[in-house]
Write the structure tokens for this entry.
Amino acid sequence: MSLVIVGSMAFDAIETPFGKTDKIIGGAATYIGLCSSYFAKDIKIVSVVGNDFPESAMNMLSAKGIDLEGVDIKKDGKTFFWSGKYHNDLNSRDTLITELNVLADFNPILPESYTHCDFLLLGNLSPQVQKSVIEQLKVRPKLVAMDTMNFWMDIALEPLKETLKLVDILIVNDEEARQLSGEYSLVKASKIIRAMGPKYLIIKKGEHGALLFYGEEVFYAPALPLEEVFDPTGAGDTFAGGFISYLAKTNNISFQNMKRGVIYGSAMASFCVEKFGTERLQHLTINEINERVNKFVQLVRFDLDEVAELA
Ligand code: AMP
């Protein structure tokens, strides 16, 4: 099944309690693409970079089988730059710098081969760009998922609400869900957000896992307790990439399969945080992924009969 990914490709400068990087390769589409390359076969990215974006990074993504025809390379432009600093708990961060550069007036034109995709993941980008991509599709995909962040809620709330009407599933973190809904309770927030358009909602809670809401149902997946967490950057994008590319690989968008997708997304995010930037995601093996997914299964498995005996 084909998967089109829309999102930023970026330079990031990251500071965590464990170290600091100069400008390294990042961006939502980069993380999502890399993660998805372990699942889906036919992956296409829609993004924009400047002439400063390294050819080696483009080659690395192409070597993973990712189609980059939809990546606009602006000869006279500078690549989007983001810099963030994590607090000691690693669950929260401050954005220090956001230089939109070529993203500021990005107006994607989808290549013809992108317009019939089966799955669409609108990674974190301006809601106007996200909407324009949906409108260029010739056939409605089986599933349209969307990520966003507080940055866009602050500066483009109305366009964001317009785009939300067009998507099947929204993936945000708890803070973003609270900001978007104006509700502290995530259960109440989930109802308000789903009334805005998406039938499904995933709320990520960092090291506390993720919740998937649909109708009256809610599914919870933990995050794996890890010995080493170096850099949470991209974990949310990686989660979204693992989730949708698992659905694309299995070609199944039932709620039951979405639960598995949430586990696969969580497993991939647990790799992402183990090294700085995209490094860990570049060199995974299928065996490592399967072992990690099994750890999740073990983490939450318990025998109800033995619990019942105590009563
Ligand atoms: P995450 O940690 O999953 O929220 O994603 C981190 C990535 O998002 C970084 O690689 C950044 O380059 C990218 N990013 C940060 N702010 C924005 C923004 N306003 N628009 C698009 N991408 C962004």
